[in-house]
């Protein structure tokens, strides 16, 4: 798959990961978390179809690193892995947000999701749980969500 559905690409974020970041919001999410801050992202048809190279061209900024968000970027893992691989080749640090846990992604054994994980430096995992919402947390919305340094998580 050489295209993905994208809701928007936001430049110069300081709340979606460490440092100055460009955030790619991908359409489509199966989790439908109660209290989601972006419920319009659930429907993949709400996004605009973009070629992988278009996404890279729009997201690539020498001053920012990258965050993959949504929706859930792992919902479109085949195309998003291609985007992440190319951005990684440009030396970008990549954060990704997902409603799945790292354990679920590993158990899914989906080749495209596993490939995408290979390009992610930091994974914020787990669904947003409204009853665990905590505004004091950095880079996540509820206490169950974890910030995982994938460079430490992977077996070297």
Tell me what you see in this structure:
- The chain has a single domain, classed as Alpha-Beta Barrel (TIM Barrel), CATH 3.20.20.
- The chain is built from five helices and seven strands.
- Helix 1 packs across helix 2 and helix 2 packs parallel to helix 4.
- The longest helix has 13 residues.
Please count the helical segments. Answer: 5
Structural class: alpha/beta
Please give the number of β-strands. 7
Q: Major beta sheet, specifics?
A: 7 strands, mixed
- CATH second-level architecture: Alpha-Beta Barrel
Measured by DSSP, the beta-strand proportion falls in: 25-35%
- Which sequence of SSEs, written as H and E, runs from N to C? EEEHEHEHHEEH
Count of discrete structural domains: 1
Shape: globular
Kindly provide the radius of gyration, computed on alpha-carbon positions and rounded to a whole number of angstroms. 14 Å
Q: Please report the distance between the alpha carbons of the first and last residues.
A: 29 Å
Going by CATH, what is the homologous superfamily? Aldolase class I
Order of adjacent strands in the largest pleated sheet: 3-1-2-4-5-6-7
Mean pLDDT: 94
CATH topology: TIM Barrel
Low-pLDDT stretches are none
Cofactor: [4Fe-4S] cluster
Catalytic activity: glycyl-[protein] + reduced [flavodoxin] + S-adenosyl-L-methionine = glycin-2-yl radical-[protein] + semiquinone [flavodoxin] + 5'-deoxyadenosine + L-methionine + H(+)
Protein name: Anaerobic ribonucleoside-triphosphate reductase-activating protein
Organism: Virgibacillus pantothenticus
């Amino acid at each position: 798959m050489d295209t993905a559905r994208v809701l928007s690409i936001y430049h110069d974020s300081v709340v979606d990961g460490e440092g100055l970041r460009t955030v790619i919001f991908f359409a489509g999410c199966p989790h439908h978390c109660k209290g989601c801050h972006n419920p319009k992202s659930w429907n993949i048809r709400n996004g605009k179809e973009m070629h992988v190279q278009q996404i890279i061209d729009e997201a690539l900024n020498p001053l920012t690193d990258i965050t993959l968000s949504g929706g859930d970027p792992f919902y479109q893992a085949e195309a998003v892995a291609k985007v992440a691989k190319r951005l990684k080749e440009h030396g970008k640090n990549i954060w990704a947000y997902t409603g799945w846990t790292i354990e679920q992604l590993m158990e899914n054994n989906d080749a495209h999701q596993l490939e995408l994980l290979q390009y992610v430096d930091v994974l914020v995992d787990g669904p947003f749980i409204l009853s665990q919402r905590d505004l004091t947390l950095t880079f996540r919305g509820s206490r169950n969500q974890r910030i995982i340094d994938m460079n430490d998580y992977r077996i070297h």
